[in-house]
């Protein structure tokens, strides 16, 4: 009877989807707009159950949700408008992490990855439809799958869906997939070491229809929520908790477009509170200054320049400096003006070239009809723009367009014969040159048995001594200010060389350390071929010798790299001593630009622990520079040898700081997460990786950013 | 022009927290650029504010155009210059391409913002009657915007003369009449108070104006008066 009623209710809600129109535009102007809210787990949803709504693409949301016994803290990102990914820590308060001698009275912690994929966008008659997986590749405590639909009726969002796994705990209907295959009838509870996808479990076992209502009182930024909750997370995993009611009630209040707080009463017994912080980085919403207005020289002044190019070089140098562009070399010929420029202000190579060209064009003699802008990054000339001056000037005066410039321009790369090697005007250097920066830094270990958070505040000093244009000694030193690392008590029992798992010893003993001290030599021996040699203390755990070669054909959307290093493990104190372990590590890498701003990198080779395998890295870069990426490594280690997690994986993101300022700048705020610090699949950390210097300046990148030319 | 609104503020806080909390969770620091300096700058921007452009009486004097300062939200004041004047309609522009069209001190149109006021309609009314009569009045305004597009949002405005106040300007002080204007749209729950400080000729020397539910407060203060 109960199942039948649930089914009828589900059908009734679905039927209702075919009625009402979508929202009007004034909804966008509510000062406290009701936002799509996160579920307790982090993905967009109601409370315990998800809905089919998504954050806008390029969004990032931090979510915290506390109750007893389960508390969730997580991060959700939308690399595409149809994909939401979440990473979450769950704290189960009624279970201890382990024996008291091992982890004191710390409660159990569980990590999990979630995915939600949109199948259908809401239309006049159709709802949003999504499919999702919770706690993929974890140890199964919250493992669930679902198909869900949500339709908006003015201020009311109606959601219904079918859940499996934890979401199917109510077991209110027969698993519909069991009609296709008998294996969907049962679900195994064995998750081994965790980390396996266990795809055979997906959409199998007990199933239940869940649903809910969200009523948006936009005027006050308030969302009232009621849901039929089919989960029993604490029953499945640990100490049973009673479920007095399957109806949960809650409210969500949007204090701004980015900050929400909420409260709920769940299962007829428990209160829950939470908050979330969200940012969207799809568009740069802060206007940036346009190019400086450069007044063209008059005929008499230009004639003077023709007779004395030094006036041209000095004028260009001074004007470029006003735009924070630094000239590296220049040559003025009868028909062509060539300059080599570098800037740490502009992320876009095209913008840098456009602003440089505007200045050169304003100052160059009238006979010059081609502007050659050679763009430098570090020691490398990364790309060259050959611009038709007439078209460029016309577009600047709005009697032409960037498209017309691109049709009359050519682009190239002359990495091994840069303009700076043979320019008429050259910079003078006074080697050795010394540069340094200082900043505070933090080290953490999160989610360990000794404590959920152990950390260190330290003072970091970075130095660079340049002996020549291509050779530098890079140093990085840390001085401890405060730490809680003495509580570490979790030695590694890995059966393979401890190349990373002795992290606690490194953090505990190396509080005042030399993070790195290495000589680097970089040059381009052949066109489109770049080389870097390393010698010294390469990173916090390894020192040695080696290098990297990158072949980046300028016209193509791929690059090939090879890195090879002979390394020895550093002492825990991270000064100049070494431990016994040494190895040779290296990878052959293919970088390939896919459509929709997706970059891929597959690296095959030998890892630090001697294991052999491949790493796949996929990332999406938005036009603002905001980047979201994931990586996965699988080597020839067995699941048992690798240990918990089964294989190495993680995610990273990077947000350009220029999105917060009214001026251009190239800094990023970045972070990454690997759920576990394991020895298998560990790679040497290489500073100044060549693809990082060159990857975003090939012809494809130039075409992508072409609209920046005149801005 | 530097501007700073709640939206950006929360983004910045989110990032500030993120960078300080998660930076070293992973051992693979090649994927985790430190960015501490940027984070600190960001957080400093939230709590201390963004560094102001250097606006001095000398600078104002040396600019051969009428000028004002403009602050948007918590942003530091930036200079705007009178680009053109046609009867009562003045076009002001900032160095980074934000355009404001003002009529008798009121912002009637904007360009260069992420949400622009494209039209402002109201029955003709001036501040003189308010100041002279000391009585309040109620008017209806219609605001239209781009991105997202909205046509003729109806707003009720209750205006009244508050009194005379001494206002400090860059290098001088003035006694001015303060007019307060409560604007309300009940449907979306938008309620703000605009303020205009006018002299005896009803010239607006300073104003604090809300022009869109999506934008923070605009504070405009004249530094060099237009020549008429």
Describe the structure in your own words.
The complex is a heterodimer of chains A (711) and B (228). Chain A has 711 residues and is mainly β. Chain A contains twelve helices and 31 strands. Chain A has a 13-stranded antiparallel β-sheet with strand order 19-20-21-22-23-24-25-26-27-28-29-30-31, with no helix packed on it. Chain A has a twelve-stranded antiparallel β-barrel with strand order 1-2-3-4-5-6-7-8-9-10-11-12. In chain A, strand 19 and strand 20 (453-466) form a beta hairpin. The model of chain A is unreliable at 1-24 (pLDDT under 50). With 228 residues, chain B is of the alpha+beta class. Chain B folds into two domains: 3-24 and 31-47, no CATH class; 57-224, Beta Barrel (YmcC-like fold). In chain B, 18% of the residues lie in helices and 46% in strands. Chain B has helices at 6-22, 36-47, 57-62, 127-133; strands at 3-4, 67-73, 78-86, 89-94, 99-103, 106-111, 117-122, 137-145, 150-169, 172-185, 190-198, 204-209, 218-224. In chain B, strand 12 and strand 13 (218-224) form a beta hairpin. In chain B, helix 1 runs antiparallel to helix 2. The radius of gyration of chain B is 20 Å and the shape is globular. Chains A and B meet through strand 12, strand 19, strand 30 and strand 31 of A and helix 1 and helix 2 of B.
Brief write-up:
In chain A, 14% of the residues lie in helices and 43% in strands. Chain A is mostly beta strands and 711 residues long.
What fraction of residues of chain B sit in β-strands? over 45%
| Count of extended strands of chain A | 31
- Low-pLDDT parts of chain B are 1-36, 46-51
CATH architectural name of the largest domain in chain A: Beta Barrel
What structural class do helix, strand and pairing data of chain A support?
mainly beta
What gyration radius of chain B follows from the Cα positions, in whole Å? 20 Å
Oligomer: heterodimer
Name of the top-level CATH class of the largest domain in chain B: Mainly Beta
Number of helices, where a helix is a run of at least 4 consecutive DSSP H or I residues of chain A: 12
**CATH-defined topology of the largest domain in chain B:** YmcC-like fold
Query: Mean of residue pLDDT of chain A?
Result: 89
Biggest interchain interface, per-side counts = A-B, 69 and 60 residues
Structural class of chain B: alpha+beta
């Amino acid at each position: 009877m109960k199942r039948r009623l649930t089914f009828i209710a589900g059908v009734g809600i679905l039927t209702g989807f075919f009625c009402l129109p979508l929202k009007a535009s004034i909804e966008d102007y509510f000062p406290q707009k009701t936002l799509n809210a996160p579920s307790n787990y982090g993905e967009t949803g109601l409370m315990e159950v998800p809905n089919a709504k998504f954050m806008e693409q390029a969004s990032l949301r931090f979510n915290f949700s506390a109750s007893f016994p389960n508390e969730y803290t997580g991060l959700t990102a939308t690399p595409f408008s149809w994909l939401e990914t979440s990473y979450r820590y769950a704290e189960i308060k009624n279970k201890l992490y382990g024996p008291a001698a091992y982890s004191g009275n710390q409660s159990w912690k569980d990590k999990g990855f979630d995915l939600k994929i949109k199948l259908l966008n809401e239309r006049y008659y159709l709802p949003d439809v999504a499919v999702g997986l919770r706690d993929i590749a974890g140890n199964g405590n919250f493992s669930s799958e679902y198909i869900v639909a949500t339709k908006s009726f003015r201020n009311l969002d109606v959601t219904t869906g079918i859940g499996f796994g934890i979401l199917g705990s109510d077991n209110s209907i027969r698993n519909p997939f069991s009609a296709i295959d008998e294996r969907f009838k049962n679900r195994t509870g064995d998750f081994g070491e965790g980390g396996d996808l266990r795809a055979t479990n997906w959409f199998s076992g007990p199933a239940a229809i869940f649903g809910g209502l969200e009523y948006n009182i936009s005027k006050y930024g308030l969302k009232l929520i009621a849901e039929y909750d089919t989960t029993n997370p604490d029953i499945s995993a640990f100490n049973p908790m009673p479920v007095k009611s399957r109806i949960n009630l809650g409210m969500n209040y949007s204090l701004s477009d980015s900050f929400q707080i909420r409260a709920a009463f769940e299962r007829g017994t428990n209160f829950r509170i939470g908050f979330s912080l969200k940012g969207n980085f799809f568009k740069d919403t802060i206007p940036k200054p346009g190019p400086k207005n450069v007044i063209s020289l008059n005929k008499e002044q230009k004639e003077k320049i023709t007779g004395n190019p030094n006036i041209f070089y000095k004028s260009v140098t001074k004007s470029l400096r006003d735009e924070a562009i630094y000239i590296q070399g220049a040559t003025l010929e009868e028909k062509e003006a060539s300059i080599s420029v570098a800037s740490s202000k502009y992320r876009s190579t095209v913008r840098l070239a456009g602003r440089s060209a505007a200045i050169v064009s304003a100052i160059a003699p009238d006979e010059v009809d081609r502007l050659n802008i050679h763009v430098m990054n570090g020691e490398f000339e990364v790309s060259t723009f050959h611009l038709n001056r007439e078209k460029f000037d016309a577009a600047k005066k709005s009697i032409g367009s960037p498209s017309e410039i691109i049709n009359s321009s050519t682009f190239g790369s002359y990495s091994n014969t840069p303009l700076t090697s043979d320019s008429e005007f050259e910079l003078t250097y006074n080697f050795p040159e010394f540069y340094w920066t200082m900043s505070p830094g933090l080290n953490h270990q999160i989610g360990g048995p000794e404590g959920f958070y152990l950390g260190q505040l330290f003072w970091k000093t970075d130095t660079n001594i340049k002996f020549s244009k291509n050779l530098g000694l890079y140093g990085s030193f840390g001085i401890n200010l405060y730490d809680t690392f003495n509580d570490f008590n979790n030695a590694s029992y890995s059966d393979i060389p401890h190349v990373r798992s002795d992290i606690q010893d490194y953090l505990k003993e190396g509080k005042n350390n030399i993070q790195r001290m290495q000589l680097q030599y970089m040059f381009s021996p052949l066109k489109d071929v770049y080389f870097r040699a390393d010698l010294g203390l390469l990173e916090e755990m390894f020192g040695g010798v080696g290098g990297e070669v990158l072949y980046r054909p300028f016209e193509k959307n791929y690059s090939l790299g090879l890195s090879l290093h002979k390394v020895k493990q550093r002492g825990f104190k991270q000064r100049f001593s070494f431990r016994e372990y040494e190895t040779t590590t290296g990878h052959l890498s293919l970088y390939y630009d896919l459509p929709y701003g997706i970059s891929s990198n597959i690296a095959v080779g030998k890892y630090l622990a001697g294991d052999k395998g491949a790493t796949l890295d996929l990332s999406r870069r938005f036009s603002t520079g905001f980047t979201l990426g994931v990586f996965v490594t699988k080597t020839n280690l067995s699941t048992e040898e690798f240990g918990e997690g089964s294989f190495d994986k993680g995610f990273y993101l990077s947000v350009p700081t220029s999105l917060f300022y009214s001026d251009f700048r190239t800094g990023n705020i970045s972070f990454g997460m690997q759920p576990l610090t394991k020895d298998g699949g560990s790679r040497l950390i290489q500073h100044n990786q060549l693809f990082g210097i060159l990857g975003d300046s090939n012809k494809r990148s130039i075409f992508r950013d072409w609209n920046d030319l005149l801005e | 022009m530097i501007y700073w609104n709640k939206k950006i503020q929360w983004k910045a806080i989110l990032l500030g927290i993120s960078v300080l909390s998660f930076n070293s969770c992973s051992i693979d620091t090649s994927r985790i650029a430190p960015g501490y300096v940027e984070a600190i700058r960001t957080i400093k921007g939230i709590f201390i504010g963004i560094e102001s452009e250097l606006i001095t009486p000398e600078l104002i004097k040396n600019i051969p155009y009428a000028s004002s300062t403009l602050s948007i939200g918590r942003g530091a004041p930036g200079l705007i210059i009178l680009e053109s004047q046609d009867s009562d309609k003045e076009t002001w522009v900032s160095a980074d391409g934000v355009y404001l069209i003002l009529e008798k001190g009121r912002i009637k149109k904007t360009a260069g913002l992420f949400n622009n006021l494209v039209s402002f309609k109201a029955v003709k009314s001036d501040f003189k009657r308010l100041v002279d009569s000391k009585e309040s009045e109620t008017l209806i305004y219609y605001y239209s915007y781009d991105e997202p597009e909205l046509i003729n949002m109806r707003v009720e405005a209750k205006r009244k003369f508050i009194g005379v106040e001494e206002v400090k300007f860059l290098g001088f002080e003035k006694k001015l009449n303060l007019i307060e204007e409560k604007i309300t749209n009940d449907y979306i729950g938008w309620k703000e108070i605009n303020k205009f400080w006018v002299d005896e000729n009803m010239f607006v020397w300073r104003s604090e104006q809300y022009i869109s539910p999506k934008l923070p407060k605009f504070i405009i203060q004249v530094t060099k008066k237009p020549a008429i």
